[in-house]
Design brief:
about 325 residues, two-stranded antiparallel sheet, about 45% helix
């Protein structure tokens, strides 16, 4: 945008006081001036004044008010990634100046989709805590669509998701698991003694899947689409545990990610590989691209990479 490009000269950028940029990003995260002021430990009028001065230096309004709170203007949306980059650069410089400290501290904000969080996240948090006990965590479990928006706004620093997502070209990532999907049927099903089950043999069985907002639901449907089959979807739920209860009652079949199988092995269901070609989803730890990688981010990535040095199947 032309008006923003004019403002991006070096002199103007460095005339902006950094605390105003930090306040702007916090308002974006919280959606309300009052909450942002509380998080920044300043008064609401003081924060509002600093946002106003930032707007004056940029030559336009950054926010619009509506019933839900604050909404970014076009200028605000254009400025946000640059503000985040500036914040990342400053944080990296601050951390560099304190390199004598052996531990990272502060809050690590990480999100995960519900079909990954219970099975992968605890191990990662345990490993980070073991090396950096001063660190704290803010955990968000939500759908892929919600997590991508939280990453864009800077509300979370990392997200455990399964591609494809709508920000794949905006992030860097670490592939940590190739997670196989297993056909899941009642124990008394005629095919329960088979090690592997073909899709053709179950195409007439009603499917029970997660709600459509879950990427695992889309991946399960893709299993059949890839075989040019169109099964009946009988019902949807929000939890893997609920789906398994429905399968136990003989009301349909589902697919279960391998990472969840061990947690649910006591259920009255059986898990089977897909024949003749197993189906996998990829699990990634994602983070937005930055000009500099902070010490905290490097520490987290080193630990996660140590846990998952190679993408692997959980089978």
């Amino acid at each position: 945008m032309k008006y923003f490009e004019i403002k991006r000269d070096i002199g103007t950028a460095y005339n902006m006081e950094f605390h105003r940029i930090r306040y702007f990003i916090e308002v974006c995260r919280q959606g309300r001036i009052s909450k942002a002021a509380q998080m920044c430990n300043v008064s609401q009028p003081s924060l509002s004044l600093q946002i106003q001065k930032l707007e004056e230096s940029l030559g336009g309004s950054l926010f619009l008010r509506n019933r839900e709170g604050l909404q970014l203007t076009d200028l605000g949306k254009s400025f946000l990634p640059h503000a985040q980059a500036i914040l990342a650069e400053v944080e990296a410089a601050q951390e560099f100046s304190e390199r004598q400290k052996s531990e990272i501290s502060g809050c690590i904000r990480i999100g995960a989709i519900p079909t990954i969080a219970p099975y992968v996240l605890p191990e990662i948090l345990e490993a980070i805590n073991a090396e950096h006990p001063a660190a704290t965590f803010d955990i968000v479990e939500d759908t892929t669509e919600s997590l991508t928006e939280l990453m864009r706004s800077g509300t979370i620093e990392f997200a455990l998701m399964s591609p494809p997502t709508n920000i794949d070209d905006e992030v860097d990532f670490l592939s940590i698991v190739r997670d196989e999907l297993f056909v899941t049927i009642p124990q008394k099903h005629p095919l329960s003694d088979h090690q592997a089950i073909s899709l053709e043999s179950i195409q007439s069985e009603p499917l029970v899947l997660l709600k459509e907002t879950h990427c695992l639901s889309q991946q399960c449907e893709n299993v059949f689409r890839s075989a040019r089959l169109d099964p009946e979807i009988r019902m949807r739920s929000s939890q893997i545990d609920t789906l398994l209860g429905i399968v136990e009652m003989g009301m349909g079949i589902t697919f279960t990610p391998q990472m969840a199988v061990e947690r649910h092995k006591d259920r009255d269901v059986s898990f089977h590989r897909i024949s003749p070609q197993p189906y996998f989803r990829e699990v990634r730890l994602m983070w937005m691209r930055r000009h500099q990688t902070s010490m905290k981010r490097r520490a987290v990535l080193k630990i996660v990479e140590g846990l998952h040095s190679q993408p692997k199947s959980t089978y």
